[in-house]
């Protein structure tokens, strides 16, 4: 049904051959048989069998590091499997690279978009696949027509001449989809597509998936979010530790799916007693953050956090939450307004001074800002204490003290590794985050700020991190959790502050319905009476 | 999905790809500067092999016998073997032990020459390596050495102090000179963000012309001479010989051993070194953990310049004590980069690499004298070493070594999970 004016076959070493195949029903059955992929001694995929029927949405569910992405990279020709074969309509395939996979009709929508921001939509769609008029001139008109055609067919509402950088994230994702469809993809792989979307955009994406399915396209939907899977998938395959551990139907409950994913029963709700908030500890008044180009990133924000409560800051990625936390931590140079913790001003303080004032901080990008990947677990645990007794005496690192400290913390925070000398870069995301938590929570805290504390973590680690955050609150420490995940916000928050375009849309109670939060995240002020 | 649906605008479309891009360069930099020791050894081996081919092809006998290669191929092969083995054995005898001398005392002389040549290379190499560990590329060795030689040299020839104290004063002046010249770079980077590669290169020129000027018209000028050359260092400031007057090896070598121990302690055992390494490995995380990255850049350049300054002062107190010109650095500041790379930016690795390069220097003269092999061949070998080190994938491909990073990318999370599961 994916009729296209230019059906392009890309084969290695050959340019695209345009041709006309109107009204052709392009459906395809994809089968992975006995795929085994090893990296040295590690088996990332162990004898995986997977069949994607024509025109179905097949969810691939698994924790981070379970081997989902590896499997899809094998399918996409980026990795070569040691064993097993890929069959399209029962014909074995050999993909030497993504070019072969694309030519065979497999398209991938990556988690991080593979788009060039300063190019238009049409230019991005034709990239790597350019059609050329006489004299070597690019045939932009053809690409434009193509974008418009696909866009109209599925109601994407994408302007072919818009610059990609000017588009919202959700629309950029549609450009990725158009790109795959313009190459006649019959199987579309979505790798964690909802990570960057608002709840509304996520709903729209679900609709797009259903439409694609109706048009005959098969979809592989990689995710670890249970709710989305149950909403849209026809079949669910669960992968754990590189193996297929089971299939499920969308009617399965969240708990059943989570149990399959993790391999043990999981409690998805966070046990927490009602908060007993004390006096306001952190008071932020009229805070504004301006970037070096003069753009206002955080616009006149005022709020407070009380001792013993969790304030969750919700919002779509990129609405000023990052800059707000950086301003709190002394990481932003241009800050106007006032920040005070227990009555003392923190504004204009260096990171060192803020940490010394008793602020614990879990940065949102732990590999970039939280950890030194090449350092051992032990070294990372003292990263913030390189001047402090008893870690350092007269310029000398106290390595035996550090080793004892590290062993205690590794045990307390259940960091699973081959020992405290393991470089943290080799740990899983969950264990890396536990190292960050162990470091930050082992100081005497008067404020704890956790930005995206469970991003990219598996269910088991999420549980652990949430318990720790609640325990910190119960110890009487004011806690700020910044999260783009509504599930997390709902599970942890005593109060929720929603940010949109650098401003506070509203501060609402922790039990505010998801639909209200979703609207607030899109910039609509909450209905009357919802404000707290 | 109606077309009327209003797309939700977001101010910043996620993150720009820049951080990823810069971290990729950062990774490449780290792999080249602090990679695996095996690559270093293999790079030297490969460079010697390619050097052998060049020696063979530039040899007159080989070229002659190549003329009738198809009638008697053995001639050319044996001529090539003679040329290569002759050259490399001359290199060995000129740098380690000369078997043609009857006594051990004479035979070992080449090795002491090697150590003498290695002395400034190790010192400067340590400086460059320290910079590498903090993520800084100090190619200002020349300027730092020149300033060190100027200040230290001036103390050595113009000041009168008792023996011993004079030496220490000159030494301190030299090291401080290098440290200041390096620290200036760190300060510029910390305050203005000026890239150290640019500033170090420019400061090399500044130092060179400054010293040239001082030698002609300034306080380095020898009274009554028109030569742009400084007066000789006073006896009280000159390094003493370690093995007596028959050998050139001097006290500088002991200093360099001490410098190596110090650098090792600094990087591996001190809290300052810990912060250095944290900044070098991941400046973002270091900053978030409360480490002042800017301050570390200044400190690191002070230490780096100081160590390079030790090489500079070594020249005027140990090697060329009869007065120096503007070429006193003899390119050591640049060779130091190679030494640091070959030593993988580890203090003892730099020490070993410095000795190897000292051997190349000492041996190349006898290679030329004995076999007529041009000294340039040694330079080619040195350059090839850098080339092979800068292209670790090439060496890995030749020797079929596994890529260390490859399996680590995606699947590693499983490793720990599986380990944990056991």
Automatic annotation (TrEMBL), chain B:
<feature type="transmembrane region" description="Helical">
    <location>
        <begin position="197"/>
        <end position="215"/>
    </location>
</feature>
<feature type="transmembrane region" description="Helical">
    <location>
        <begin position="165"/>
        <end position="185"/>
    </location>
</feature>
<dbReference type="Pfam" id="PF02653">
    <property type="entry name" value="BPD_transp_2"/>
</dbReference>
<feature type="transmembrane region" description="Helical">
    <location>
        <begin position="323"/>
        <end position="341"/>
    </location>
</feature>
<feature type="transmembrane region" description="Helical">
    <location>
        <begin position="348"/>
        <end position="365"/>
    </location>
</feature>
<dbReference type="GO" id="GO:0005886">
    <property type="term" value="C:plasma membrane"/>
</dbReference>
<feature type="transmembrane region" description="Helical">
    <location>
        <begin position="37"/>
        <end position="58"/>
    </location>
</feature>
<feature type="transmembrane region" description="Helical">
    <location>
        <begin position="79"/>
        <end position="97"/>
    </location>
</feature>
<feature type="transmembrane region" description="Helical">
    <location>
        <begin position="117"/>
        <end position="136"/>
    </location>
</feature>
<keyword id="KW-0472">Membrane</keyword>
<feature type="transmembrane region" description="Helical">
    <location>
        <begin position="297"/>
        <end position="317"/>
    </location>
</feature>
<feature type="transmembrane region" description="Helical">
    <location>
        <begin position="249"/>
        <end position="267"/>
    </location>
</feature>
<dbReference type="InterPro" id="IPR001851">
    <property type="entry name" value="ABC_transp_permease"/>
</dbReference>
<feature type="transmembrane region" description="Helical">
    <location>
        <begin position="377"/>
        <end position="399"/>
    </location>
</feature>
<dbReference type="GO" id="GO:0022857">
    <property type="term" value="F:transmembrane transporter activity"/>
</dbReference>
<keyword id="KW-1133">Transmembrane helix</keyword>
<feature type="region of interest" description="Disordered">
    <location>
        <begin position="1"/>
        <end position="22"/>
    </location>
</feature>
<keyword id="KW-1003">Cell membrane</keyword>
<protein>
    <submittedName>
        <fullName>ABC transporter permease</fullName>
    </submittedName>
</protein>
<keyword id="KW-0812">Transmembrane</keyword>
């Amino acid at each position: 049904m994916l009729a296209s004016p230019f059906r392009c076959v890309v084969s290695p070493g050959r340019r695209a051959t345009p041709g006309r195949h109107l009204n052709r029903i392009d459906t395809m059955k994809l089968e992975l048989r006995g795929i085994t992929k090893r990296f040295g001694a590690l088996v990332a995929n162990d004898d995986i069998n997977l069949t994607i029927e024509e025109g179905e949405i097949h969810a691939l569910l698994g924790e981070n590091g379970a081997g989902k992405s590896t499997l899809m990279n094998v399918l996409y020709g980026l990795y070569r499997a040691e064993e097993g074969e890929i069959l399209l309509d029962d014909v074995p395939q050999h993909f030497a690279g993504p070019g072969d996979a694309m030519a065979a009709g497999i398209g991938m929508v990556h988690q991080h978009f593979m788009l060039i921001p300063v190019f238009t939509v049409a230019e991005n769609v034709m990239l790597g696949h350019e059609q050329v008029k006489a004299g070597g001139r690019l045939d932009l008109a053809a690409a434009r027509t193509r974008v418009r055609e696909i866009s109209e067919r599925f109601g994407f509402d994408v302007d072919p001449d818009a610059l990609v950088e000017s588009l919202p994230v959700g629309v950029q994702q549609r450009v990725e989809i158009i790109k795959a469809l313009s190459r006649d993809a019959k199987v579309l792989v979505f790798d964690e597509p909802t990570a960057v979307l608002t709840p509304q955009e996520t709903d729209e994406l679900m609709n797009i998936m259903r439409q694609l399915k109706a048009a005959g396209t098969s979809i592989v939907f990689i995710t670890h979010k249970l709710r989305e899977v149950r909403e849209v998938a026809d079949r669910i395959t669960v992968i754990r530790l590189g193996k297929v551990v089971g299939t499920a139907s969308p009617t399965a409950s969240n708990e059943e799916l989570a149990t399959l994913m993790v391999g043990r029963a999981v409690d998805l709700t966070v046990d927490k007693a009602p908060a007993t908030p004390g006096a306001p500890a952190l008071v932020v008044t009229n805070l504004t953050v301006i970037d070096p180009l003069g753009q206002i990133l955080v616009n006149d924000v005022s709020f407070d956090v009380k001792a013993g409560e969790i304030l969750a800051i919700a919002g779509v990625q990129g609405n000023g939450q990052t800059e707000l936390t950086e301003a709190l931590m002394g990481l932003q140079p241009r800050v106007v307004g006032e920040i005070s913790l227990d009555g003392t001003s923190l504004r204009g303080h260096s990171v060192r001074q803020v940490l010394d004032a008793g602020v614990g901080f879990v940065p949102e990008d732990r590999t970039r800002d939280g950890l030194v990947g090449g350092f051992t677990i032990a070294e990372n645990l003292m990263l913030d204490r390189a001047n402090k007794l008893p870690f350092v005496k007269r310029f000398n690192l106290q390595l035996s003290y550090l080793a004892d400290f590290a062993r205690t913390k590794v045990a307390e925070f259940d960091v699973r590794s081959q020992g405290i000398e393991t470089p943290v870069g080799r740990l899983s995301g969950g264990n890396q985050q536990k190292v960050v938590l162990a470091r930050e929570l082992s100081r005497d805290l008067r404020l704890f700020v956790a930005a995206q504390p469970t991003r990219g973590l598996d269910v088991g680690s999420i549980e652990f991190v949430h318990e720790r955050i609640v325990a910190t609150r119960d110890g009487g420490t004011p806690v700020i959790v910044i999260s783009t995940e509504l599930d997390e916000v709902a599970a942890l928050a005593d109060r929720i502050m929603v940010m949109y375009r650098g401003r506070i849309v509203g501060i609402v109670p922790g039990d505010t319905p998801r639909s209200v939060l979703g609207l607030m995240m899109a910039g609509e002020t909450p209905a009357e009476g919802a404000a707290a | 999905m109606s077309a009327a649906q209003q797309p939700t605008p977001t101010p910043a479309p996620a993150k720009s790809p820049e951080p990823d891009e810069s971290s990729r360069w950062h990774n490449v930099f780290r792999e080249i500067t602090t990679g695996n020791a095996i690559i270093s050894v293999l790079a030297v081996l490969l460079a010697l092999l390619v050097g052998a081919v060049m020696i063979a092809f530039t040899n007159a006998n080989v070229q002659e016998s190549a003329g009738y290669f198809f009638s008697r191929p053995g001639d050319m092969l044996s001529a090539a073997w003679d040329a290569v083995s002759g050259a490399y054995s001359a290199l060995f005898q000129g740098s380690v032990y000369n078997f043609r001398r009857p006594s051990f005392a004479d035979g070992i002389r080449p090795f002491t020459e090697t150590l003498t040549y290695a002395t400034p290379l190790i010192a400067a190499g340590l400086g460059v390596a320290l910079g590498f560990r903090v993520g800084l590329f100090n190619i200002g060795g020349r300027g730092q050495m020149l300033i060190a030689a100027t200040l230290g040299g001036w103390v050595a020839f113009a000041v009168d102090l008792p023996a011993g104290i004079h030496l220490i004063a000159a030494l301190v002046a030299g090291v401080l000179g290098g440290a200041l010249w390096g620290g200036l770079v760190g300060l510029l980077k910390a305050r203005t963000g000026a890239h150290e590669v640019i500033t170090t290169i420019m400061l090399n020129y500044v130092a060179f012309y400054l010293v040239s000027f001082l030698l002609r018209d300034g306080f380095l000028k020898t009274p009554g001479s028109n030569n742009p050359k400084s007066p000789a260092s006073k006896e009280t400031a000159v390094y003493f010989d370690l093995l007596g007057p028959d050998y050139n090896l001097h006290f500088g070598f002991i200093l360099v051993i001490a410098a190596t121990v110090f650098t090792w302690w600094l990087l591996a055992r001190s809290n300052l070194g810990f912060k250095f390494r944290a900044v070098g490995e991941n400046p973002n995380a270091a900053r978030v953990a409360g480490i002042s990255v800017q301050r570390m850049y200044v400190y690191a350049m002070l230490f780096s310049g100081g160590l390079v300054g030790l090489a500079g002062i070594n020249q005027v107190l140990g090697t060329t004590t009869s007065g120096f010109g503007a070429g006193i650095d003899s390119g050591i500041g640049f060779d130091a980069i190679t030494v640091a790379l070959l030593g993988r930016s580890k203090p003892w690795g730099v020490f070993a690499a410095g000795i190897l390069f000292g051997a190349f220097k000492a041996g190349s003269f006898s290679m030329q004298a004995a076999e007529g092999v041009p000294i340039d061949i040694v330079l080619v070998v040195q350059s090839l070493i850098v080339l092979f080190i800068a292209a670790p994938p090439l060496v890995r491909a030749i020797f079929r070594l596994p890529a260390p990073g490859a399996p680590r990318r995606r699947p590693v999370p499983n490793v720990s999970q599986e380990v944990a599961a056991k």
